[in-house]
């Protein structure tokens, strides 16, 4: 049956099916990523992956799709917009205002709705099912930030965008506010051409990073990245970086907020990424008041659930300490002290740090 496949017509059908499933765009990449291996190896050798041991454990396998899934000859790449459907045209201004208010909590935009892993994985599988119906038995495997895959490399090679200096994928018509997913297949589909880069001399993302984690263009030291520190890192947050985290309690969007291309960012077509009321514009003290049962209920089906209650409290303690530095009222100090004795050693250490912060001179 495959001998009679019109590859270009099939690719057009795939693009139509993908749009019906909520994807913004798909592309097709080759599996030869050997030219990306030196950069990956240098990144690992420098220890920029921090405590993400799985990065070093898989090593260069990330750049070898055919080793990860034997028989793979093409990777279908996909992107899906995630800005909530009711996002204001002034959304970037609104986010900057939130970051400037030490009483508020800032959760990364992508994490305010449903867990993207669940959404993309199910819809990529549906795309694979349609493809199998069209061509017959199909060797395939679906990935969404869930295996040793060089997602940005594959996305940029297949035309979903180019790698920005912050290492995220950028598209001229959609900025960077989208998720990536992959479908490894044993079908020699026609390749889609890569995008031309359009960052030029701009270094806004590098300059705005609160912790200066973008150590060079296209190179991020995860050990300094607030997204890593508040999500992937399961230990103490380095004391010298805590004041720089501000009120960011889960992830960080600064490098995307400042990017000029995100004035073209598109909203999601799916309701899954609509912000949950509890995460739309929360106050730090509201979230700090949650016990573990409330945390688990509020984050059911959310990507936030994966960090667990202890890391959630750790992150909030840091943000509350920064609020004290900014002149928070006595109720913040009282709330921290009320939780201290029952806290785990990790959380208690961050509470003690917060309580030790000097009172700020600014109006809260």
Explain what this protein looks like in three dimensions.
It is a single chain. Helix 1 runs antiparallel to helix 6. The relative contact order is 0.15. The longest helix is centred in the middle third of the chain and has 20 residues, at 116-135. With 364 residues, the protein is of the alpha+beta class. Among the domains are: 2-85 and 113-185, NADH Oxidase; 283-364, no CATH class. Helix content is 40%, strand content 11%. Strands 1-2-7-4 form a four-stranded antiparallel beta sheet, with helices on both faces. Strands 3-10 form a two-stranded parallel ribbon. The N and C termini lie far apart (69 Å).
Describe the structure concisely.
This protein is α+β, with helices and mostly antiparallel strands and 364 residues long.
User: What fold name stands as the CATH topology of one domain?
Assistant: NADH Oxidase
Q: Based on the structure given, which CATH architecture of one domain is correct?
A: 3-Layer(aba) Sandwich
Mean pLDDT: 91
Count the helices. How many?
A: 17
Class from secondary-structure proportions: alpha+beta
Largest sheet: 4 strands, antiparallel
The quaternary organization reads as: single chain
Taking pLDDT < 50 over at least 5 consecutive residues as the criterion, the unreliable ranges are none
State the share of residues found in helices, binned by percent. Answer: 25-40%
CATH class of one domain: Alpha Beta
The SSE string, one letter per element, is: HEHHHEHEHEHEEEHEEHHEHHHHHHH
Strand order of the largest sheet: 1-2-7-4
Please indicate the percent range of residues in DSSP E strands (runs of 2 or more): 5-15%
Tertiary shape:
elongated
């Amino acid at each position: 049956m495959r001998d009679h496949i019109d590859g270009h017509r099939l690719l057009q059908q795939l693009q139509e099916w993908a749009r019906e499933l909520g994807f913004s765009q798909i592309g097709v990449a080759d599996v030869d990523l050997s030219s990306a291996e030196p950069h990956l190896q240098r990144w690992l050798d420098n220890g920029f992956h921090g405590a993400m041991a799985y990065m070093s454990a898989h090593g260069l396998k990330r750049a070898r799709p055919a080793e990860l899934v034997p028989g793979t000859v093409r990777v279908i790449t996909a992107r899906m917009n995630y800005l909530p459907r009711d996002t204001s045209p002034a959304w970037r201004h609104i986010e900057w205002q939130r970051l400037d208010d030490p009483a508020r909590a800032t959760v990364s935009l992508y994490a305010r709705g449903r867990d993207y892993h669940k959404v993309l994985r199910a819809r990529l599988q549906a795309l694979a099912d349609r493809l199998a119906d069209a061509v017959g038995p199909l060797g395939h495997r679906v990935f969404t930030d869930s295996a040793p895959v060089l997602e940005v490399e594959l996305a940029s090679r297949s035309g979903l965008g180019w790698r920005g200096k912050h290492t995220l994928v950028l598209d001229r018509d959609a900025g960077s506010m989208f998720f990536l997913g992959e479908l490894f297949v044993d079908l020699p589909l026609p390749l889609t051409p890569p995008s031309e880069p359009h960052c030029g001399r701009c270094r806004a993302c590098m300059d705005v990073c609160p912790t200066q984690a973008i150590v060079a263009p296209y190179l991020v030291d995860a050990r300094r990245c607030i997204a890593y520190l508040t999500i992937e890192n399961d230990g103490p947050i380095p004391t010298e970086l805590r004041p720089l985290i501000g009120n960011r309690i889960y992830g960080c969007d600064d490098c995307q907020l400042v990017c000029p291309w995100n004035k073209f960012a598109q909203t999601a077509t799916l309701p899954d990424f609509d912000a949950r009321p509890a995460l739309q514009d929360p106050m730090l003290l509201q979230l700090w008041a949650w016990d573990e049962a409330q945390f688990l209920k509020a984050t059911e089906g959310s990507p936030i659930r994966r960090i667990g209650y202890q890391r959630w409290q750790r992150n909030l303690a840091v943000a509350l300490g920064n609020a004290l530095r900014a002149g928070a009222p006595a109720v913040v100090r009282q709330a921290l002290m009320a939780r201290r004795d029952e806290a785990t050693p990790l959380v208690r250490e961050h509470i003690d740090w917060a309580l030790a912060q000097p009172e700020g001179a600014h109006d809260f």
